[in-house]
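Continuing from yesterday's entry. The apo prediction looked reasonable, so today I'm repeating it with zinc ion included to see how the binding region is handled. Same sequence as before; SMILES copied from the compound registry.
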Amino acid sequence: MGLFDFLFASKKENKKPAHKLVNLNGVRFKYSKNKKSKSIKITVKDPQTVNISLPFNCSYKTAMDFVYDKMNWIQKNLELFEFKKIDENHKTKTNNFIVQRAIIQKPVIKSQKGIISFIYPFDKDFYSNEIQSEAKKALKKALYLEAKEYLPKRLNEIAEKFGFKYNKLSLKSHKTRWGSCSYKNNINLNINLMNLEDDFIDYVLIHELAHTVEKNHKENFWKIVNTCMPNAGEIRKKLKKISPVV
Ligand SMILES: [Zn+2]
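Holo prediction written out below.
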């Protein structure tokens, strides 16, 4: 493919902007010059974003050559996001997602008494892209049901325990964020939290509730978070490595 032609299509820069964006097959390659960085660093952030940080005195051309060399690695990491398979025995928090096989032509999603069953044709491979994409739809339904049961209750418990006040809670399915808090103190939580363990969920809830008091991530914000959850730092580090994409 003319993947690389595109990369090199950008002309030499006369000025020195601190960012440069290159779009490639729906993926954004964001080059950022960073005073603190000593070498070129590539981070595959999500299926649509690759971040490249480079030292200030490094040219974009050099960084693009570097990215070119690492394209196989980047591709592999993008695919990990894209084709992350769900397991036939995928367990959600309250076990309301069940996978079954049957003699049917097409996959079916059934909802009964709070249980989401995903039934797929016995002669199809569960791990094929076709069945996976249907199974993911079913799982999303199950996660949403669970999230509706669990997250509002838990958020209220924590808010009451530590004296936080928020306005409204909405449940979302977001690819890159676990939660957010608006300036009006409306909280959004990601239904994919239901794939995580309790500590991680609590951390995200506390983090967003702390934003009802402090809208930034400065010292006082972390002080509040740590008061509510002394091991917050540790949990945060681990959570950074988990992507909400299912
Ligand atoms: Zn935050």
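Comparison notes:
- Residues 207, 211, 217 surround zinc ion (CB under 6 Å).
- The mean pLDDT is 88.
Will overlay with the apo model tomorrow.
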